């Protein structure tokens, strides 16, 4: 049981060069795989390929195989894939249906599309609201929310389809620190409560340091670094790949560079 | 046989803010009824000769707007139509073909009485048309309209196209505001004299058009990611009421439209 990308290579329609790959990647349930990389390193393309939206919706050419729980994604229809791999895009506003008056109905949009019984739709909406931590927003107008709230509504909308995996493309890129914290906490809760596997593309390596079990760094469509989160995020090669190290790593380096001990020795005075 | 999709207006699990009973007579009419009434108003305004048609319609619309507390919204839409009204008046006043009854001579230009009356009547008809559509829009929540169309058997793609079209104007205005703010922050002058504002439109047009096109792709993918293309009927959480009075009003409106059409075709309406 996992999302598996085997020797995957993808070219956008009309392009002669591959935007991604060849690449091998695996996302297991209950695990968070973080993806970092400079702009145009193939992060968004990886998300589209992993969810099956590329090439099924946007065209292009895919070589290799994407399997979701052992099933070839190419054999699944978009709505079938949506129930296995939920995708959250960068901009919260483009993910809203713009046809609903309340957050409750916005989250119900996906389950209603599947034609589920009303009782089940309601149960799923309340569950998604609770897991995303936005129950108090249920009656609000979805287009009149802050960036962080909007992204959480979009996340809950995807969750309501009960996918086993979540593919998140820079979900905090438009958010301030408070919004980023809200989304990070929600993701931690989702992994804990649902056991979903998450592929998280994120520029903010502090977020990856908090929740990623494994980190993959992409460079020009290929995997440049891959390994346990703490190890990769402390790798000195990150800067050369256009990725900033997390604040904790930079602090450690600064402390060591100034000749102090890291971690602080027992009995060291804490300066506040 | 028409299959009625599962509905949940009476479902006790639905929160009150989802059920949302509209208040007031006109607001609580079924969306299809309001569309039929709007169609009748447009037909009356254009098909009945002279001032009678647009006169009746404008009076009825103003009364309905006052009753349904949408007069202010209607006035805004009237103001938005001003540039079109002005251009209609200018064109008809000065260059109405065949008009030979000048009001005055202004050098090479001669505004005519016929042009003035024709321009005013065209304006009245245009206002009746835009107000009829606007009143239906102002009194019908978009989700009610879509739910009702879905209930009547329109496919989900058709329903979404209608929804997207209705939402296009406010969404475009929002985008224009965002881009104007961004351009202003980079030093573009968008205030002051008209020519200066007009000049500001050039750098605005590109981002608005191309941004909208780029958004379409992401929105399409986001819809797919939410099971939009799943086969079968969508579940409807709430369905707008369709009462006896709705059915009566719809039948009357459609009968009136048919009668006017027959009278026009047979030449009995002048």
Short description:
The complex is a heterodimer of chains A (272) and B (270). With 272 residues, chain A is of the alpha/beta class. In chain A, 38% of the residues lie in helices and 22% in strands.
Quickly list its features.
heterodimer; A: 272 residues; alpha/beta; Rossmann fold; 6-stranded mixed sheet; 4-stranded antiparallel sheet; 11 helices; 10 strands; 38% helix; B: 270 residues; mainly alpha; 10 helices; 0% strand
Describe this structure as you would to a colleague:
The complex is a heterodimer of chains A (272) and B (270). Chain A has 11 helices and 10 strands. Chain A is 38% helix and 22% strand. Chain A has 272 residues and is of the alpha/beta class. Chain B is mainly α. Chain B folds into 2 domains: 30-140 and 240-265, no CATH class; 156-224, no CATH class. Chain B contains 10 helices and no strands. Chain B has helices at residues 16-19, 31-47, 52-67, 71-80, 82-95, 113-139, 142-151, 156-185, 194-224, 244-265. Mean pLDDT of chain B is 84; it is low at 1-8. Chain A binds chain B through residues 48, 51, 53, 57-58, 77-79, 82-83, 86-87, 89, 91, 94-95, 97-102, 104-105, 108-119, 121-123, 138-139, 157-158, 161, and chain B through 6-8, 11, 13-15, 17-18, 20, 141-143, 146, 156, 160, 163-164, 167, 171, 215, 217-237.
